[in-house]
């Protein structure tokens, strides 16, 4: 059973899809944390530069 899991997770396509969904999840969480505001909405990080 463990050997099958090791072979499954060693597959390059599985690694690529895993990383893709990991970074997609981070991106979506950042969008939801900071909202979908436009640049004039006030909570924009570069307003003071």
TrEMBL record:
Keywords: Membrane, Transmembrane, Transmembrane helix
Residues annotated as transmembrane: 20-46
Pfam families: DltX
InterPro entries reported for this sequence: DltX
Name the record gives this protein: Teichoic acid D-Ala incorporation-associated protein DltX
Organism from which the protein derives: Neobacillus rhizophilus
Gene: dltX
């Amino acid at each position: 059973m463990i050997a099958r899991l090791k072979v499954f997770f060693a597959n390059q396509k599985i690694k690529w899809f895993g990383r893709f969904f990991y970074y997609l999840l981070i991106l979506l969480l950042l969008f939801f944390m900071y909202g979908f505001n436009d640049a004039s909405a006030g909570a924009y990080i570069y307003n003071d530069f």
